[in-house]
Write a structure and sequence with these properties.
Blueprint (H helix, E strand, L loop, with lengths): L2 E7 L7 E8 L2 H15 L3 E6 L11 E6 L2 E4 L5 H4 L5 H10 L3 E2 L1 H9 L17 E2 L2 H9 L3
Antiparallel strand pairs: 1-2, 1-3, 3-4, 4-5, 6-7
Amino acid sequence: MSYAIEHENERPHEADGPYRTGVYNTVAEAKAAGERAAKKDGLTNVIVRDRGDVVSIFAGNIVSELVEGVWHDRGIFDVQNWWPKLDAETRAWLLEHAEGEIPADVLHRIVAAGGVVPGTKWETDADYRFRLPHEAVDWIVTQRD
């Protein structure tokens, strides 16, 4: 999975509105780039999204948001928060299949437990193939023991 940063463009002499930049291999790399951009351009809000290899703004789930210098992790990455809210059947399925593609019915159960920020692209895109981020998979795998 890859990650991108987005922000409201506040640069003089450029069009206002959402702006997406960079492709990063890890959330940590994207956050570091977001912090640099915020500092350099005086941005007050920067968002990290998954699916960083997609050019379109708003593509992917919100992973984390930098608001006034503080990161707020959200969505699917908060696995330790939504995991206990899943039913036993879904947890058992994820323990065996977390590394693969997540079918829509399982994804909807994760969302219902608070796992993904509502309003993201996958909710209306029937062709969207969802995989859990590596960080979430790694955490789930530790629950097997």
